[in-house]
Amino acid sequence: MLNSILRALIFFLLLSSAVAAQTTIEWWQFWTDPDIKPTIVAMVKEFERQNPDLRVNLTDLTWANGHEKIAIAFASGAAPDIVELGSDWIAQFASAGRLADLTDHVASQRLHYQGWTMATYNEKVFAKPWILGTRLLFFNRDLLKRAGYTADFAPVNWAELGHAIAAVSKLGSGIYGWGSNTAEKHRLYKKFMPFFWSAGGRIFSEDDRFCVISSQQAIEALKFYKSLHECCGYVADQRGIEDAFLEGKVGFVISGDWLLKRIELEERRINLGTVVMPGPGPDFSTSQVYDPNLQVTAYPGKSFMGGEFLAVNADSKNQLGAVKLIDFITSPENQLRFCKANRSANPSSREAQLDSYFQSNPHLQNFVMQLNLSAHPPVDPNWVYMETEIEAAVERVLFENAPPGETLRQLQKTITNLRKQ
Questions:
Q1: Taking the model in full, what pTM does it have?
Q2: Partners of residue 184 on adjacent β-strands
Q3: Where are the domains of the chain?
Q4: 136-304+382-420: CATH superfamily
Q5: Euclidean distance between CA atoms 241 and 111, whole angstroms
Q6: Are 410 and 389 in contact (CB under 8 A)?
Q7: How far is Cα 193 from Cα 203, in angstroms, rounded to an integer?
Q8: Cα separation, 266 vs 172, whole angstroms
Q9: Domain 2-134+305-375 -> CATH class
Q10: Among candidates 323, 316, 318, 319, which has minimal Cα distance to 77?
């Protein structure tokens, strides 16, 4: 009896010691959707089984106030070991010394993942790419057929896009060629910027010294975007545009992989086409948009790239464990697992992108292709303020009839002043 009690006591002490030896890693993340959160939890449990000395405590954030909570936590010294960051937040926190420098750790991984430039500030890497995001051009093939187009048509440049949008709009009966975003924060500029980048526009000069957002290329892009809005646009917020598209009322919309997910889950019957964003074509000008005699030349454009990144708190006492967890979550197999659960199309892992899950679906394949034809905003601590000014400028042109050239020139002055702060 005494021996049994002693053995039980020894076992209890050993168990208590093992528990006490565990290190807890705090991870703040945004994936709360019931379709994907169980996968996050399952991956965490698997990580804990493989690393019995580490325990992970998950805290959920929302996009409505997550940025504010992260900023307050860093300022008060209460930030977690790992934090999920939107790509345009990285420079803000890196410049303030809040994020650990991961440059050396990820050196051998650089060729195997996409998106590093969004995590690089002052030539140092401060986060690891996890799930990226881009936008495709979605279109309704049935509406195009009614407008006289063949079943295999997809626009390859702005002229073709303009012709097709105008043709769909002429169908009448509440049919619109183009889904045009209203003044919706964090949305509108992501629809204009693909045209801006495709035209060769830049926010800053190549040496990063000067704002050059009012270039002639940028003006032409804004004129073209405005022409689509005015002549053929169904104007609503993103959800409203997508609702109208799925109801067969809109020919073309720009959207992300969440629209594919919605079509599947809602069992929508739509003859869907997707294509990478078309470019302007050589020597394009807005006077050519609806010229039926214009020679059509394929000229791929660029889309918007963003993403979710995992970063380590510079003051974390558990940086080794934190980095180990980040590598586990972002591994090719776990990215594939995540994308399948979330029905998403943009893993940062190049190995995961080659999986048959993406390669066998033409729409998912187009998303992977678009990632290689995308651009992202500058990695600048003041980008969140610049973004607001760009959206306001586009709003003035679309909804207040402000002249594109003068509006962009004023925007250039505003962004220049923001950089001086």
A1: 0.89
A2: none
A3: 2-134+305-375, 136-304+382-420
A4: Periplasmic binding protein-like II (3.40.190.10)
A5: 37
A6: no
A7: 10
A8: 27
A9: alpha beta
A10: 316
